[in-house]
Structures are given as structure tokens and as C-alpha cells.
Write a structure and sequence with these properties.
heterodimer, A: alpha+beta, Beta-Lactamase, Helix Hairpins, Heat Shock Protein 90, five-stranded antiparallel beta sheet, five-stranded mixed beta sheet, 11 helices, about 15% strand, rod-shaped, B: alpha/beta, Rossmann fold, Arc Repressor Mutant, subunit A, five-stranded parallel beta sheet
């Protein structure tokens, strides 16, 4: 009994059996309470009718008369004053009578054996072929007193119907079991399909097709299941792409490191060459370090989606702090930094917003020319703040601008080593802006510079 | 010669920072924890302290606030944590600056120099010239509510000329004042810096300009 199918079928059949038993009990109770009385009255009427006819027609032989009635379908016991018993019709299965009853009936009382027949849970008195289960009336024939006990010969009268009902019952039970088995299969099959599909997904195959075409809950389940599979497939693809990118971006600096270290091992190099190699090694190490930091940040942004620590953030303070932190790099490159940051507050996650400004600024520094300019302008309005970061860097082509927020995209497609970058910075920026329900715009002119505009709602 | 105190429990960091700063011509004393550092400060006169945050016995925050109470000494906190909360905690305990590991040699030296410069100029007067405001302590220029951070030499050049507006300086004089007597470059350096300053402020400030006085040198003129 492990499969849902057998459980479902078993339970349904059990329900049928139990409800059958209950309905029998209920109808039995109905017979006992209501029908038994009616049945008794009906038989009593017949009995009087028969007794009346016998006493009014003394010319007809009592023997013949009762033989005739017995043949029509009644079971009769006739007792005379001396206590002699005569049976007509088919015999009773049990022939006991309560004591004194024949005396009482002889003295003119009526015996209501049908309605007095005892209650039994699983026996309907209706079919009980017993003398007790009869009606007794007094009969006077040729001034002799008799007691007549009578009940309809159910077996004779209703035999065909009995068989008919029996077949009806058996066939309906068998058919319903058959239909339960079939319909259960129909119900359970989609679940089996779904189970197979989950196994497929667990095995790494996301391109499943479920041909479950239903509008019920199972149909909905199948539809949302397929949606989930699609989403998983997409995530899986992104993950693979990410890993390819990461391994490329980690492998290439590692290859460089290895190569230059090997070169350094060879001793016949000039001091100048060695310095050059060390510079390369240094910058590659930096790149690796930056990348791991940013990957960490990116994954923490992803996991933060639901657990952002929202509080009031002093944007002006953060911007000043970021500028201060990168001051040395800005001035090292001979860049003039100008900024105007009036007090501004937004609701947001302070450390994420800090990373946002940090990435925008380091981007502006990295891609700027020597002795260039960076300008940061913060403007506050009723409902939002706007931070504009403008640089005098290399600028972007229009088609590059569409892709700069993609992970690992770098405008210098040759993966030019002149600028250290991981291609993650702007994707981090975009994720953080999205998390804060903000907008980011970029305008750029190739060779002139790029302007990033971040708009954050104050909330 | 300025003396710098380095407090870090990691011996490698201590010797790295020591090496970098000694190459810049500073005298360096090292301590491996806060208690040792406070003991050294009792006997030695230091000009600046570089303090690590994560240390046994006494952490960097505690040491910073203790130094703040007893001495007038600029402090740079060194930390491996780049979390903004820690920066705030650092500033609360009274540090002047912080540096995040892994740092670049250039950055350390830049910050040490900048901090010493700032602490050295205690009695400077700021310059107010029309719309131009020069804050000599923070090394920042302000024009019409906008703050400008200039590369060091450009800032010093502008400040020197703005201290004496309308006065003409020869290239040689400017080199001696700004770059020092032992500067090895030629006078073209001055031209390059002047050119950059002009470019930068041409569209920003209309009420002062650097004029070339043919055959003599440069002068900052106020309109």
C-alpha cells in the first residue's frame, strides 16, 4: 500500500463499504420504526378479509379455501379449539409461537406478530420466515372457532425481485470498484508525471515538458511547476555563465602571475625589466583581490534582498567619506575633484549605499584620464535625491551603454590591462539602486566622458 | 625628522609599514599591543600613530581614545574590516583617518603625509578672495558652494599666488617656493600646472584669473 494510487483506491472502496453498511442500518431502522407498522396493518387487513370470506361462505371447504390461498402466496397456520394445527402454503422455517397466543386469538384477540417482531441490528424482520412474524386473527367457520396465523410468502412473491435487487447490488458494487480503479488512475497519473519531472530536475535536466492539460488544482500545479523549471533553467544558465566568466577572470590574472614570476626567476634580466614584471604582478594581485571583494559584495547583495537593514542614511556624509577615502587615488592621478553635497537623507541600507557611491567613484577614477576632472553633485527635491557623478574619462559608445550593467561586461572588450577592472562594479551599482527602488541613467560621449545619474526615492 | 609609532600585533604588517615609512624618511617605533604603545608614548615624543584595530590585550578603539585623552597626536586606524559601522566606531573613538587592509604603499604614505601636513599647519589663515575661498587646513578650495580638491602641487601653487594677489612671480621663484630648491625638473613644470589651473577654473570662477606676464612670469589677478 505504498503508492498514492492504491491508497486512493483502497480508501474509496472502504468508503463505499462503510456507507453501504450505514445505509443498510439506517433503512433497517426505518423499517423497524415506520414500515413494520404499516406492513402489519396491511397483513392484518388481508387476514380479516380472508377470515371474513371463510366465515361468510360455509359452503366452501375450509381445507380447499386455505390450500388455494396458500398457493396464491401466503403461509397459513390454522388452529382449532382442540389445539390441532394445520399448515397451508410453504412451511414456516421456525414454528414457535409465544405461549397463550393461540388461546388468546381463539378468544377473539388479534396477534400483531409482524409489528412485535424483535429489533435486530442486522436483520430486517421483513424477510424473517417465522411463525412469530405473522398476524393472527380469530376465525369462525360453521360455528367452530379457529385461530388463523398468516403472513405473505415473501420468498414466493418477491423471489425475482430479490434476485434482481441482488444482481443490481452486486453489479453496482463491482462496477463502482472498477470505475474507482480507473478514475483513480486518471487522477493520480498527473501526480506521477510531476514526480517524474521533479526527478528529472533533480538530475539536472530543466527542459521538461508536462502534457497535463487540466484546469483544476493539478493543472495549476503543473503550470506553476513548469514555470519553476523554466526559472531554474535560467538560473542554472546564469550560474554557468557566471562560473565561466569568473574562471576566465581568475585564470587570466593567474596565468599572468605565473608567467611573470617564471620570468623573474631567470636571473639575466635587467633591474628595470624586473621592476616592470613586479609592477605587472602587483596589478594582477590587485585585480584578483578586487574581484573577490566585489563577488562577495554581489552575493551579499543577492542574499540581502529580503533582509536589508533599512534606516535613515546621511547621503552627504557618506559621499564625503567616500571622497575622503579615495582622495589619495584621485590626487595621485592628478584629478581635480569637485563636489557639492548639501545635507540629504534617504531610507536605505547604509552599507549598500556606501558601496554604491564607492563603486561609482572608483569607476570615475579608473576610467578617467590623467589630470582629468570628477564632479559629484547632489540635489535634493521633495521626494527624491539625485546624485550625478561626472567624469572626463574614455566615454562609451551607444551600444556599450546598453551592456555596462551586465555582470563581467567591460567596455574594453579586449580585456585591456591598462585599466584594472572586474566588470562587476556597475552590476553591483545597478543591483543596489534596484534594491532601493531607484533609477540609474547614463549619458556618455566617446572620448569626452561619462555621466551617471542615480535617483533614489526618500521613502 | 618626524617620529611615527606603529601599533600592530602582526609582525609582518609592522615590518611592512616600518619599511615603507622609513623609506619616506620617517623615524619609526613599533609596539605590538596597546599597552606597550602607551608605555612607549610616556618616554618617546611621537608625531603620529598608526594603530591596528584587531589586537589582543587592548583593541585599537580603546587605544585611540586613550591616546586622545593624553596626547595631541594624529592617529590613523588600520583595519581589515571595510564595514562602514567600524569606520564610524573608529571616528567616534577619535581617530583622524583610517586605512583599510590590504592597502597600497602609496595610500599609506599619502595619508601619513596629509595628516602630518594638517597637524603642522595649526595657525594657518584661510584665504578669501572674491568668490574664491581656500581652506589651508583641509586643503580644499570653495567657490560658490562647491568644494574642489586639487592635486597637491596645483593647490599649493594656487594658494601661494592667492596669498599675494596681483603680484608677479617668476617661474624660478614659484619652483623654489612650491617644489623646493632640490627640484630637478625645469621651468616648464610651472607652465603645465598653470595651464591646468586655468583650464580648471576658466568656466567656474570669473572673478580671478592667472595672467601671463610676458618675459617675467605669472600673476593671479582679481577683477
Amino acid at each position: 500500500m505504498k503508492s498514492l494510487y492504491s491508497k486512493f483506491a483502497f480508501i474509496t472502496i472502504m468508503i463505499m463499504i462503510v456507507s453501504g453498511i450505514f445505509s443498510f442500518l439506517l433503512s433497517n431502522a426505518y423499517y423497524q420504526v415506520k414500515l413494520k407498522q404499516q406492513n402489519d396493518e396491511k397483513i392484518t387487513n388481508f387476514a380479516f378479509e380472508i377470515a371474513d370470506f371463510a366465515s361468510k361462505h360455509p359452503l366452501i371447504s375450509l381445507q380447499d379455501y386455505f390450500n388455494h390461498i396458500g398457493a396464491i402466496g401466503y403461509q397459513i397456520l390454522l388452529i382449532n379449539q382442540d389445539g390441532e394445527k394445520q399448515y397451508f402454503g410453504s412451511p414456516y422455517r421456525k414454528k414457535e409461537l409465544p405461549e397463550d397466543i393461540s388461546e388468546k386469538v381463539l378468544n377473539g384477540e388479534v396477534y400483531h406478530g409482524v409489528s412485535q417482531f424483535p429489533h435486530k441490528t442486522f436483520v430486517t424482520g421483513f424477510f424473517a420466515n417465522e411463525l412469530k412474524n405473522s398476524v393472527g386473527v380469530p376465525l369462525e367457520y360453521k360455528s367452530n372457532k379457529y385461530a388463523m396465523f398468516i403472513r405473505p410468502d415473501i420468498k414466493l412473491l418477491f423471489n425475482e425481485m430479490h434476485i434482481l435487487f441482488g444482481w443490481l447490488l452486486v453489479i453496482s458494487i463491482l462496477l463502482s470498484i472498477l470505475f474507482v480503479l480507473i478514475s483513480t488512475k486518471y487522477l493520480v497519473n498527473p501526480i506521477r508525471n510531476l514526480k517524474k519531472a521533479t526527478q528529472e530536475i533533480a538530475g539536472g535536466n530543466f527542459s521538461i515538458k508536462l502534457d497535463i492539460d487540466r484546469t483544476d488544482e493539478l493543472g495549476h500545479l503543473a503550470v506553476s511547476f513548469m514555470k519553476m523549471a523554466e526559472k531554474l533553467a535560467k538560473v542554472d544558465m546564469l550560474r554557468k555563465e557566471l562560473i565561466t566568466n569568473i574562471s576566465h577572470d581568475i585564470q587570466s590574472p593567474l596565468t599572468n602571475l605565473k608567467g611573470y614570476i617564471d620570468l623573474l626567476k631567470v636571473s639575466n634580466k635587467s633591474e628595470q625589466e624586473k621592476q616592470q614584471y613586479i609592477r605587472v604582478i602587483h596589478s594582477e594581485v590587485n585585480r584578483l583581490s578586487n574581484m573577490t571583494k566585489q563577488l562577495l559584495l554581489l552575493s551579499s547583495i543577492e542574499s540581502k534582498r529580503d533582509i536589508m537593514e533599512i534606516c535613515t542614511v546621511d547621503v552627504a556624509g557618506q559621499l564625503k567619506s567616500v571622497i575622503h577615502q579615495y582622495q589619495w587615488r584621485i590626487l595621485d592621478k592628478g584629478i581635480m575633484m569637485s563636489y557639492s553635497v548639501p545635507d540629504a537623507f534617504v531610507k536605505g541600507d547604509p552599507s549598500l549605499l556606501y558601496s554604491l557611491w564607492e563603486n561609482l567613484l572608483t569607476n570615475a577614477i579608473k576610467y578617467n584620464r590623467e589630470n582629468g576632472i570628477i564632479d559629484i553633485e547632489l540635489t535634493v527635491s521633495e521626494e527624491q535625491i539625485e546624485v550625478v557623478v561626472e567624469d572626463t574619462g574614455a566615454g562609451l559608445e551607444t551600444k556599450e551603454m546598453e551592456r555596462i550593467f551586465d555582470r563581467f561586461y567591460r567596455a574594453d572588450t579586449s580585456r585591456d590591462r591598462s585599466v584594472e577592472g572586474t566588470g562587476l562594479g556597475l552590476s553591483i551599482v545597478k543591483s543596489i539602486v534596484d534594491l532601493h527602488q531607484g533609477k540609474i541613467k547614463v549619458t556618455s560621449q566617446k572620448g569626452k566622458g561619462t555621466t551617471f545619474t542615480v535617483i533614489l526615492p526618500k521613502m | 625628522m618626524k617620529t611615527i609609532l606603529i601599533v600592530d600585533d602582526d609582525e609582518n604588517i609592522r615590518s611592512l609599514v616600518k619599511g615603507l615609512l622609513m623609506r619616506e624618511g620617517y623615524k619609526v617605533i613599533t609596539a605590538e599591543n596597546g599597552v606597550a604603545a602607551l608605555a612607549i608614548l610616556k618616554t618617546e615624543l611621537c608625531d603620529l600613530a598608526v594603530v591596528d584595530i584587531m589586537m589582543p590585550v587592548m583593541d585599537g578603539y580603546k587605544l585611540t581614545s586613550d591616546i586622545r585623552k593624553l596626547y595631541d597626536l594624529p592617529i590613523i586606524l588600520l583595519t581589515a574590516k571595510s564595514q562602514i559601522e567600524d569606520k564610524e566606531k573608529g571616528f567616534e573613538s577619535g581617530t583622524d583617518d583610517y586605512l583599510i587592509k590590504p592597502f597600497e604603499a602609496k595610500e599609506l604614505i599619502f595619508r601619513v603625509n596629509a595628516l602630518l601636513r594638517r597637524y603642522g599647519n595649526v595657525s594657518v589663515t584661510n584665504i578669501n578672495l572674491g568668490s574664491l575661498f581656500i581652506n589651508k587646513k583641509s586643503y580644499e578650495v570653495k567657490i560658490n558652494n562647491k568644494t574642489y580638491m586639487l592635486p597637491l602641487k596645483e593647490f599649493e601653487l594656487l594658494t601661494f599666488m592667492a596669498t599675494n594677489p596681483n603680484q608677479v612671480f617668476s617661474r624660478g621663484h614659484l619652483i623654489e617656493k612650491i617644489w623646493g630648491l632640490d627640484f630637478e625638473g625645469d621651468e616648464r613644470t610651472v607652465d603645465v600646472h598653470i595651464k591646468r589651473l586655468r583650464e580648471r577654473f576658466a568656466s567656474i570662477a570669473k572673478d580671478f584669473a592667472i595672467k601671463t606676464i610676458r618675459g617675467v612670469g605669472y600673476s593671479l589677478e582679481v577683477r
